[in-house]
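With this grant's support, we have settled on a layout for protein records. One resulting record is reproduced below.
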Amino acid sequence: MKIKALLTATACSAAFALPTTASAAVFSFTSTLSGEQHTPAADTDATGTATLSVDDSAQTLTFSLNVIGISLDDLWDTLVEAPVGPIHLHDGDVGANGPVVVPFAFDLATYSDTATGFSLLVSDYAYSDAAATSGTTLSFANYLADLQAGGSYINVHTDAFNGGEIRGQLAPVPLPAGFGLGLLGLAGLAALRRRA
């Protein structure tokens, strides 16, 4: 009886220790941006780093970008005034150009000057609003699948490089190393419990 109680307590503890990604339905992605990744490559020293979180229950996106070597004044004036903004997420594989899916307009996102460039932050952005602004017909489910397959990128458009100065492919953040072992341990505990 003590073994059964111990196994139950251990299984409960392990379940609470597991990451909540699956239950919360939040997927994370990262990107490092450079001119070399642009198609065609842009001759620039500017760089950037970005994170994207996608909640597949709420169908919302939270995006953060930090850029070094480009100021807010350098962003392409034509797109600063446009609904799609000078920074957006495209649907497309490495080395291929694709359509805008998620735009970040100046009146939607928080653009801020930094000492070395600028940053952008937008929280809980409804995919349906993004799709309406960009005009994409790509469903949320299909875009999330493309993201998970590495088929989406960030593009930063500037006055000097209207087509995009820096670009970065979004890559899924892998699950923690112990995640698979935790699931394996829970399966083992369940098997032992059935025997008791």
Observations:
- The beta strands are 26-34, 47-55, 60-68, 87-91, 100-104, 110-113, 117-126, 152-156, 166-169, 171-172.
- Residues 56 and 141 are 8 Å apart (CA to CA).
- The chain is about 30% helix and 30% strand.
